[in-house]
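Fold Annotation — chain and its backbone

Encoding — discrete vocabulary of local shapes
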Amino acid sequence: MGVMEMQPGEVGSLSARIYNKVREGLIIGNFAPGDRLLMQDLAEQLGTSITPVREACLRLVSEQALELRSGRFVAVPDLSRARYIQIKLIRMALEGLATEHAADHVTPADLEQLESFRVSFVKSEKAGNLEESAILQSRFPLRRLPPVAYADADRTDRKHVGLDGANPQRLLPGNSAWLCRHG
């Protein structure tokens, strides 16, 4: 697990900022399935008291991104093969539908933004910078583009600007990361 730090000037309540930090850590794969996260250790890494850390962790537990194991720690849940297949099937259906909808509403500016993002991501991947690639992938601008504007890897009639749509594990580095990102 990498060291997490709060950045000066971050907005939102302290527990919301901690929630976002831990959530991002799950998304980019800083935590592996089965990892125990001691709330006191997280509080020390983030330079805060345990109360906002506990609130953030309980929120992630309610989203099934973490499991409460005791009053002192949470754990990253394991992902069974059956659950992985279920998530993969749901993603394929939703992303295909979103792609069809987006293709009808995408603007040239959306495509420029996505292409710029894609170039940065590919450059990072080719350089072997997996952490940067994971961070870029977790910040993929799906939520900022109304509606979602990326093409499904299976579509040949649209320019492919999506990221590894054929491999849902890429968005599951901590196994529960997809749930955090899309929950």
Summary: The chain is about 50% helix and 5% strand. The chain has two domains: 14-75, 81-182. Residues 31 and 174 are 6 Å apart (CA to CA). Helices lie at 14-27, 39-46, 50-62, 81-105, 108-126, 130-138, 177-182.
